[in-house]
Amino acid sequence: MKKTIYLDHAATTPVSRSVLEAMLPYFSDCAGNASAVYGAGREARKAVEKARKQAADAIGAEPREILFTSGGSESDNLALKGTAFALKDRGRHLITSAIEHPAVLNTCRWLEKQGFDVTYIQPDSKGMISPDKVRDAVRNDTILISVMAANNEIGTIEPVADIGAIAHEKGILFHTDAVQAVGSIPVNVNEWNADLLSISAHKFYGPKGTGVLFIRRGTRIDNLIHGGEQERGLRAGTENVAGIAGLGRAIEEATAHLEENAKKNAYLRDRLLHGILDHIPDVKLNGPEAGRLPNNCSICFDRIDGEALLLRLDLAGIAASSGSACTAGSQEISHVLRAVGLTEKEARGSLRLTTGADNTEEEIDESIRILSEIVEDLRLMYHG
Ligand SMILES: *Cc1c(COP(=O)(O)O)cnc(C)c1O
């Protein structure tokens, strides 16, 4: 197979060499159950607790505030359902945004069916959620505000510190889905006033199927998975020790090299974006020019069908995404692109390119060249 140019790092990233090395012992040599008293079990327990400290240090938390999960989706589910059910006698109203990941949005829709009431804050045309709108939505029975730290489709970085401050001023819990933020921008649970914060390892060169929910000490939350006493009784099931060890190494590295990685990604992203804007007519950037994730380039092409574009890019060896990986394959247009005011046609002509550690300048230049050719070609055949 021809080497692909991978420009879909917001969908997932490969496990880095050093992360893989941190994981390997826990598949074989130290494969004990972390709850066991014998040597291999104690080694596994040590690995889990080391990762807990690494995750805590990366976000300004304490180790006991770190709960390991199976990824971003589970963390979001637990944050929302867990607090909703724990606090349902105090109130049944939640506030979120219209541009959250489906792991939050569909959980909210489900909670609505269980008798909860949810307000969905609309973003401005750049994807920004206004703290004032959040403040205005607060009611006496509001128990949770959940707004993502950065949007996975158009890269908008949200004013979560301000939103968290409003939540705290009103005595309401604040959750943020920081899955796209970790490894891209500084994440600090105290600066953001976060009570709950979701993380997923595979978005920063860690393994898939491993995540964290930060739960601030003293936060009331019900568990979703009942069984053994793992994770202080909040999340039953034998620990995914290798995955957890990988997450620990990955988050430590992502945090230690945050600035240089962000700089490199932004350089490549800007080169890509300007190359596209300079060489292809009738294109437009989705999301803000400043205040966006360093690796995110979301573009809308006039007179282009995004699905056709993706297929042609794939044939040419470029891996990208339309809107979001979670909507790919469905006929629905992206809820995020719709919320920021794109027409259905514009949304259908959108492409998300996200840079990462493995990309080179040559790959970017090659991508601009290939993309220009394909867009020109597809436009000749476009019938609206
Ligand atoms: C990828 C992603 C998720 C889901 O994480 P998984 O680990 O794949 O379940 C949730 N929220 C955002 C913003 C994401 O980008």
Q: How does the SSE layout of this entry go?
A:
Blueprint: E1 5-6, H1 17-23, H2 39-59, E2 66-69, H3 72-86, E3 93-97, H4 102-113, E4 117-121, H5 131-137, E5 142-146, H6 160-169, E6 173-177, E7 196-200, E8 211-215, H7 241-256, H8 258-279, E9 283-285, E10 296-301, H9 306-315, E11 318-319, H10 335-339, H11 344-348, E12 350-354, H12 361-381
Helix pairs in contact: 1-7, 2-7, 3-4, 5-6, 8-12, 9-12
The protein binds pyridoxal-5'-phosphate.
Please provide a written account of the structure.
It is a single chain. This protein has 384 residues and is an alpha/beta fold. The protein folds into 2 domains: 135 residues, Aspartate Aminotransferase, domain 1 (Alpha-Beta Complex), CATH 3.90.1150; 240 residues, Type I PLP-dependent aspartate aminotransferase-like (Major domain) (Aspartate Aminotransferase, domain 2, 3-Layer(aba) Sandwich), CATH 3.40.640.10. It contains 12 helices and 12 strands. The strands form 3 sheets. Strands 2-8-7-6-5-3-4 form a 7-stranded mixed β-sheet, with helices on both faces. Strands 9-10-12 form a 3-stranded antiparallel β-sheet. A two-stranded parallel ribbon has the order 1-11. Helix 6 links the parallel strand 5 and strand 6. The chain is globular and about 65 Å long. The model has no long low-confidence stretch (mean pLDDT 95). Bound molecules: pyridoxal-5'-phosphate (PLP). The site of pyridoxal-5'-phosphate has 15 residues, from helix 3.
